[in-house]
# Entry
Amino acid sequence: MTYCDLVIRNARIATSSDVFRGDIGIRRERISVIAEELPQGRMEIDAGGSLVTPGGVDSHCHIEQLSAGGLMNADTFESATRAALLGGTTTVIPFAAQHVGMSLRKVVEDYHALAERGAMADYAFHMILADPRPEVLREELPGLVRDGHGSLKCFLTYDRIRLHDEQFLDVLLAARTHGCMVCVHAENHGMIDWMGRRLVDRGYTRPVHHAVSHPRLAEEEAINRAISLAALIDQPLMIFHVSTKEGLGVIRRWQGDGQKVFGETCTHYLTMTREALDRPGIEGGMWVCSPPLREESDRQALWQGLATGVLATISSDHAPYRMDETGKLAAGPEPTFKQMANGMGGLGMRMPVLFDAMVSRGGMDVRDFVRLTAAEPARIYGLGERKGSIAIGKDADLVIWDEEREIRLTHEHVDDNTGYNPYAGRLVKGWPAMVIRRGEVVVGQGELKAAAGSGRFLARGGGSAARSSGGIAAEFDTKRNFGADLYRE
Ligand code: URP
Ligand code: ZN
Ligand code: ZN
# Structure
């Protein structure tokens, strides 16, 4: 009798801890058996000795989202997750973005409707809290966490959506109370605003001046402040898109002191520098993102931060805006950097660009590649029981790699709606030959076979990463001295 729906034979299976040869048997969407030689399945795929990794988990991407400046980004759930699957990412965590005055519950319902209609990859949402008024934190947040939205993001910069420290403390306490992971965009708003105005006043308006307007100190200060606030509440924290060696150093020091803080960096900070912004005319605008691209020494430091475990995940921070009047040029054909939407695409490029850097060029090990692109993002955000690994019982989300395939990336190699490829010009070795989502071949021979709306919502709790660690001794003393009610909502 045939037991498996699908058997993938002759695979070099990579997990975050091992690489071994074997066959993978899939039954009812999950991995049900891994063995040296499996009996015939109903369907068979011969991997021919190729590397097979878990499907990527991109834990930070903006899809069909309204920016702080009120601009809709270029992708729908369909176009973004099409690019994700073609690039080997089978799970995404985009945002359900609240703006001031909105009901968080309604925001989440609206993003659900969009994703249900379009998503091809499986998905969860981080809730963006831009207006943490008491009724949102007391009446909406607890139910949303119970419904499987176990993480949220706050911004310490950007007009209209940023939180003041007092508001951020309220959010941290509510998150701790309900077991929710907190992620933060940590840059000092005052420094950026002040610098930006002075630059524009003096005529320094080009894309490269965007990088000058986000001083490295703005990241260092805000990361330190965000972690200090989280330490006061004893709430774990994820620092999104770390871009500088100083920011990394702050995280390392707090981790050394026993604070439960995680760090994320993004494909672009690992592979590009500020020079990209310094192209003639408006062209550098393609790489205007926040925090900005930095220096070669930062790039090197971030790789070290990944190797030593200070940074836990690599996301795309896919924030797609076209180089036209719908996106980066919404304010006119020659906007100042202050008028330009922040962000670049990358959801479909993350896995191939990182496979090339880490595996093909030997920058790290394929186990590290799996850890940073799939296993850790899944674990930290409460998806580890189903996603991010090749093991019995996990969803059969797999990528079979063509390790020898070399591609010179161009603007045509982009499957999302951005219309340009931030990685154009780069030669990458290694490409997803086949992508399998819950046991179904969704990409093969370069063709997409998934239907819009076939992605599934992944309800999840905050996960073990969101659980408080016992905190820092000094803060514990305060709590004992003043009684627990000080730290109760
Ligand atoms: O420039 C970026 N990253 N835009 C998206 C919003 C954010 O801060 O992540
Ligand atoms: Zn951010
Ligand atoms: Zn982002």
Summary: The longest strand covers residues 398-408. The pocket of zinc ion (ligand 2) is lined by residues 185, 240-241 (CB under 6 Å).
